[in-house]
UniProtKB/TrEMBL annotation:
Highest taxon, organism lineage: Bacteria
Protein's name in the database: Acetyl-coenzyme A synthetase
All copies of domain Acetyl-coenzyme A synthetase N-terminal, residue ranges: 36-91
EC number(s) per entry: 6.2.1.1
Record: residues binding CoA: 201-204, 321, 539
Amino acid sequence: MSAPSSAIQSTLVENRVFEPSDATVKAARISGMDAYNALCAEAEQDFEGFWGKRAREVLTWHKPFTKVLDESNKPFYKWFEDGELNASFNCLDRHMGTPVENKTAIIFEADDGAVTKVTYKELLAKVSQFANALKARGVKKGDRVVIYMPMTIEGVVAMQACARIGATHSVVFGGFSAKALQERIQDAGAVAVITANYQMRGGKELPLKAIVDEGIAMGGCESIKTVIVFQRTQTAVNMVAGRDITMADAMAGQSTDCPAEMVGAEHPLFVLYTSGSTGKPKGVQHSTGGYLLWANLTMNWTFDLKDSDVFWCTADIGWITGHSYVAYGPLAAGATQIVFEGVPTYPNAGRFWQMIEKHKCTIFYTAPTAIRSLIKAADTDEKVHPKNWDLSSLRILGSVGEPINPEAWMWYYKHVGGERCPIVDTFWQTETGGHMITPLPGATPLVPGSCTLPLPGIMTAIVDETGNDVANGAGGILVVKKPWPSMIRTIWGDPERFKKSYFPEELKGYYLAGDGAVRSADRGYFRITGRIDDVLNVSGHRMGTMEIESALVAKSDLVAEAAVVGRPDDLTGEAIVAFVVLKRPLPTGDEAKAIANELRNWVGKEIGPIAKPKDIRFGENLPKTRSGKIMRRLLRSIAKGETITQDTSTLENPAILDQLAKTN
Ligand code: WTA
């Protein structure tokens, strides 16, 4: 933690309150605040009974569990441990013979607008056939499979097929570089990669298979025995004989029947890498039973899902949101969902609104960054303003990934939701598996910019550095006091890091989220004030400052030292600013620009384009204390363009501040 809780202050006062309409309350699953409070009280009174009841109601168990929670080896909590089930069975097979069987599971809209639909029955056949193909390629229960695919039906099929045979998938976002992919393959010890030849985004054909080849060629990926390639486009790619096969060839002749492999509730369903406060990404390991329970239950609670809903979560399957609210939650809940391949600005910035109208979307879930960029687009071009489309099908809006500023909230509420749709501002993390703090559409009065209250059974609180509760109105550290079913189980291959990162001793064994927060004095509503560790949130994507620093210093012919901080940005929430000391004299003018560009591209290659610093500043040194510690708070001030008013008397080299303040 770099900032003490006393430094986390609340400056924003928001007085607007939006009550849910009577009709919404009446029709809702959790109807009104009394119903919400009753659920919270139930969880308080009988914590294990509360979760056990939900797990029995929401999931189909092959073998029922006899114990809800095992706390004997904290913080390695186990949920429903002796129970057995299969996640894919719970998303697909379970609906057979019910009205969901012939319901549309996925409405897929490709980048170019072409639409493909699959029913639950068809999806089950596809998943089973691909699961058989995986088995035929030697993939088995307990193996890890890396998935590097675009947003497609096949991407979901790949994830579900792994789950079906008990293989643990690790999806790597298609925007990550060969190097990042190689590191993840190696860390997970994956036996197979499922990829596509290309992906289509914004009218462009972007390579995926070539990046897989490049990553594997970097070495250390000897565990990979097979690479399965979905042919998204007609363009041919290099295929390595004996290792690579197309998805179509792998599936040819395979049966569309593949009984689901039952696994223990704690069996790792997936590992998803995310940024932490060191250079190395963390493989967040999730369970099968607890994770799926929460993915399904939150579909019903947070989105108040009805049979007739058309649900659309715009997140990529490469992120946790695309796991819980594309690949698993909607299917487990039997929903019809939209899966979109492209980008919100192609062919123009009206694409989202056009798609909502076309598919009669009822629940729309996206990120504040997307909303802010579409506001900007609508402000400059009337033709892409949402008013040009009929959005009357919408009934609930959602926001995820970063704090939503009240201005963006109000625009979303007014121009997209027609002042009719509640906005669920859902706070959660890769580690939490599903929603933690969020309004309920038919209960919670909304306050713009606040994620309001924790879901029933989720014991969030705000504490100081010693784990003591702080008063409402005072800022502090966000923690969760009790375990919950969909929580991270460990960091893949690094249980010590898991313990240290999330359950520091001084916090009384509470789960440390890594965010600062404040509760409002009047309602006790939570507002997230941002990360308190060295993690940035750029366009809703988590980036570790250390990760970017490591990438920069890896350019060892050029870079001696680097420090990376965040700076507030109107569009992307935060922007990456890098301070770099070169192994050559301080560059100026065009030379500085050229080197900055070279470094930006380098970081793009090391991690991925999302990690490229927006601003790179050069100095002969970095501001350090006499003991050699980089004073990041000073760098943060410089990055924001503030004059330094803080005490700099402990600095070894105060003159360096002026140098760094000058942009190149
Ligand atoms: C931030 C994304 C404010 C927060 C699901 C968290 C939010 C990090 C919100 C997790 C929200 C997510 N309001 N901040 N509604 N949702 N965050 O792991 O800083 O990609 O710790 O999971 O995003 O990002 P992650």
